[in-house]
User: Fold this.
Amino acid sequence: MDYSQFALSKPGTRKRKKNRTRSKATKEKRELVKRADYLCKILAERRDGGVSAKSGLPAAENNPLQACHILAKGHHHLLRWTLDNIVTLRYSEHRYWAHTDPVSFVDWVEAKYPGRLGKLRIAERMTRKVDLKELLIVLESEVGGAEEGRGKHGAVSSNAGCKVIAESASKSAEAGHRGHG
Assistant:
């Protein structure tokens, strides 16, 4: 049978997909995301005093502290670097409690931080695009400022790193409102 008239190729002769390499821009963005994640982890650990928010225990060799997102960073990507969305937990608490029993985790968050989930739900509805370079400048200044001794015991505000995002979101909201009226 002549297969030249069909859009599909002859059975058994499919072309193999080539391995695609990531573009330079994608690699650079990934590095910026990793850096922002790392800086937010440092700020969250400092805010929580270097101990788990749940148990109050410090990191152990086989149980390090982790930045745990209250609302998942994949589904709620606008809240990924919002420090109100991050709590410090030990690995075992993060992996074997927060992920395996999310209902209990949410109940604990509501009990420990009243009203935080409501604020996060409102914040996630704000439509904005995160400028990673701008965010990194703010986060690095907050981490550097805390290292210089700002704040009690190196603690930083829960809104660190989000000031610029909030300002740019309000500016874009104003601009969008003016454009529709």
In short: The first strand starts at residue 65 and ends at 69. The mean pLDDT is 79.
